[in-house]
Amino acid sequence: MSSGEVVLWVVLGLAAVALLAFAVILLRFVGRAALSYARRKPVQAVAFFVIPGGLATFTAAFFGAGLPLAMGIGLATGLAVFLLVGMELG
After folding, report:
1. Which residues contact residue 51 at a Cβ distance below 8 angstroms, ignoring those fewer than 6 apart?
2. pLDDT tens-digit series, residues 19-55
3. Which of 10, 13, 25, 71 has its CA 20 to 30 Å from the CA of residue 19?
């Protein structure tokens, strides 16, 4: 392994650690806002998670995705919409 490869691996490792730290900070902020919204308005929070998630699951399955993949797409979509709404309204 040459010195250039070592430097490249070190820089890659530092970038991965920085990206992980940024993601943790962002998720803590967004998660806190979403949880406060879910505590204040639980019915609306469930609706903001279930409706887009269900539509995304149905659409993915309708267009030929396997059921586990469609469920994953629906889960990710529902969670993203819930976190965005929770962050805005929380």
Report:
1. 78
2. 999 888 888 888 788 888 888 888 888 888 888 888 8
3. 71
Cβ(86)–Cβ(30) below 8 Å:
yes
- Is the whole-model pTM more than 0.70? no
* DSSP code, position 50: H
Q: How far apart are CA 90 and CA 50, in angstroms?
A: 18
CA distances for 68 relative to 48, 72, 86, angstroms: 21, 6, 26
Q: Is 45 helix (H, G, I), strand (E, B) or coil?
A: helix
Q: Band of the pLDDT at 81, cuts 50, 70, 90?
A: confident
Query: What are the φ and ψ backbone dihedral angles of 64, each rounded to 5 degrees?
Result: 100, 5
Q: Are 60 and 28 in contact (CB under 8 A)?
A: no
Residue 69 CB partners (closer than 8 Å, separation 6+): 60
